[in-house]
Specification:
- The chain is α+β, with helices and mostly antiparallel strands.
- It has a single domain, classed as Jelly Rolls (Sandwich), CATH 2.60.120.620.
- Strands 3-9-6-11-5-4 form a six-stranded antiparallel β-sheet. A three-stranded antiparallel β-sheet has the order 8-7-10, with no helix packed on it.
- A hairpin with a 2-residue loop joins strand 1 and strand 2.
- Helix 1 packs across helix 4.
- The chain is globular and about 55 Å long.
- It starts with a strand and ends with a strand.
């Protein structure tokens, strides 16, 4: 197939099928990331104050909804030709943008437990290709100090339900290790974007730095997959002028969102 916007999509698909995640380095300019982060900080801080110190993800580890507005909804990111080419092959050309959230470990967070995200399987014990993915981009460099992600490659196809009850007893909790498993630490440069099959076992790690580690996540899924958030969130939230500025493909991807006049 050759290169698409500088990326070998065939190679990326091979990595995806084997590992359950794939990284596109240097996809977003630093200037764009900095503009997004500047607009993001007040949105993030207001919701963190509302949630308090003990949100559902654990002490000082937050999921804040990202507004479907500029500068967060950016066609240069979600319609990047290489990302579109990849998602067309990984999800099918009719994929849809379902939700927009974030992963924010504040200084002082500890390890998460090993876990999976979202709907694991349509039928118990049967694994399929990915039904939903997280398309994620950090707003800062991520590293061992500020709590980068750890992922267990290849585990997206494990269908043994008995392994899902307490994965810390399988892999080891915190810094401890049990058995011969080889997690990958995703230390990403600002400007990178990665796509994750949430069924691959993963966890957040401690933020030992003095800074917040922000990462935004565009949730993409099959168009027939039920989205509880979509059914619960009934108010218009995507500005009409933004909607009308989108390409036909952009409107197809965002067709689940409700327009706000």
């Amino acid at each position: 197939m050759g290169l698409t916007a500088g990326y070998d999509i065939d190679q990326k698909m091979q990595e995806w099928r084997i590992n359950g995640f794939v990284v596109f380095e240097d996809m977003i300019s630093h200037e764009k990331i900095d503009r997004i982060r500047e607009a993001w900080i007040p949105v993030r801080d207001e919701d963190i104050e509302r949630q308090g110190d003990y949100p559902f993800r654990g002490f000082r580890r937050y999921n804040v909804r990202v507004p479907f507005t500029r500068p967060f909804v950016d066609p240069e990111i979600f319609e990047h030709p290489a990302l579109v080419a990849f998602l067309d092959r990984a999800m099918g050309p009719d994929y849809v943008w379902s939700h927009f959230d974030s992963n924010i470990p504040l200084p002082g967070t500890d390890y998460q437990t090993w876990h999976r995200d979202g709907q694991v399987a349509l039928y118990p014990g049967v694994k399929t290709p990915a039904l939903a993915v997280g398309v994620k981009f950090p707003l800062v460099d991520t590293n061992e100090e500020n709590g980068s992600f750890e992922v267990m490659p290849g585990t997206q196809y494990i269908a043994d339900e008995d392994l899902l009850t307490d994965l810390d007893n399988v892999f080891g909790a915190g810094a401890d290790r049990i058995g011969t498993y080889y997690p990958t630490r995703l230390n990403l440069k600002k400007g990178s974007l990665w796509v994750q099959d949430g069924r691959a076992f993963h966890r957040g790690t401690p933020n030992r730095s003095d800074e917040v580690r922000d990462e935004l996540c565009m949730g993409m899924c099959k168009p027939w997959l039920f989205s509880g958030w979509q059914h619960e969130f009934t108010e218009g939230h995507l500005p009409r002028e933004l909607w009308e500025s989108l390409s036909d493909h952009g409107k197809q991807v965002l067709r689940w969102q409700r327009i706000r006049d």
